[in-house]
Amino acid sequence: MPFCREAPSRSPTHSIQVICEKADRSNIPDIDKKKYLVPADLTVGQFVYVIRKRIKLSSEKAIFIFIFINNVLPPTAVLLSNIYKEQKDSDGFLYVTYSGENTFGE
Predict the structure, then answer these.
(1) What is the pLDDT of residue 14?
(2) Fewest Cβ atoms nearer than 10 Å: which of 32, 78, 84, 98?
(3) Which residues span the membrane (predicted)?
């Protein structure tokens, strides 16, 4: 008879504390909120989408949003919880810097 074991119980989801700051040389608008409490299973790409929605842009504006963690552009499929484990600051926050580029040279 093959060895069977129970599936591990799901731990309660936890949240990650993120502080989001605009890059010094970025010419895109400021975000309306700097501190976030995000689900641990959120990916970098999903967080970029959150930032994009919180920046006050008119609907005809098109920009690419990038986030940097310790001056590194993380892959969009990586979970923020994985980055948090490796890159969180001693104060318990994950610091994220965002920047962007106008897509049509505006």
Answers:
(1) 85
(2) 32
(3) 62-84
